[in-house]
Amino acid sequence: MGTYLKSYKRFFPNCLYVLVMMAAFLLCAMMYEPRPLQEILHAGEVPLGKESLYYFNVSILEAIILVVLGLTRLLYYLLRNRLDMNLLNYSVWCVLEIIAISAFAALYLALMDRSGYFTYLARTVYAMLAVLVIPAAIMTLVSLFKEASTAEPADEGARLKFYDSRHQLKFITSSAAVLYIEANENYIIVHYQENGIEKRFQIRNSMKNIEPLCERAGFVRTHRSYIVNPAHIRMVRKDVNGLYFADLGTENSDGIPVSKKYYDNVTAAL
Q1: Which residues, 6+ apart, have CB-to-CB distance to 24 below 8 Å?
Q2: Would residue 238 count as lying in a domain?
Q3: Is residue 133 part of a domain?
Q4: How does pLDDT run across 146-181, given as a tens digit for each residue?
Q5: 261 in the same domain as 166
Q6: CA 99 to CA 92: how far, in whole Å?
Q7: What is the number of structural domains in the chain?
């Protein structure tokens, strides 16, 4: 189902991330005061003839962190079902967020100090990375630990209950019997086996709504329109056109398409 940090597919954890990053910056600026941060937060004092703009600059940079992270986390949340966000990609996303904060902060500080932008950019990136990388890493590790400790092992004998879009129970079967699930416009089609015969059951619902159920069952997404039970995958092959397909070894299946986005997740599940 993708290698997301599942916590950040929800709205509240992203809001909490923004607040924690702001609190970490404020704590460093007001109490710890590392040298890289002190150097940029006194910007503008000499040109403007002010004794101290430190606290004013802290307030402006706090606002910049709020706006930049607010926008990037909103984008992350809106694209949560389209991004292939494994741990490495998520780490890169976090670093790019800090660089984006630094870019806007450097613009403000350069205008205040009437100095070159790129000079302040290098100093600001260094200061922000020094201050914000550690809380970002801690929150990521906490999320990973929490998800690992609460994850339920896949149970092939478990009963899966499929509900429609009105949350009315429509179909129950064992997870081991399910071959794959297919999206068809406003419906999903559950392909399953009963007494060795392949059958199908159509339900009015979306892949997005049934994704958590499939994750708990240990199923894997192969394509935007397909979720497959990896226990039934016999091989993943590449055709003459360079397209990948998962063969289930059933008479009625010509192979389930595997997009490049989900290829690594499929092979990892085998």
Answers
A1: 131, 132, 134, 135
A2: yes
A3: yes
A4: 776 655 544 555 788 899 988 899 999 998 899 999
A5: yes
A6: 10
A7: 2
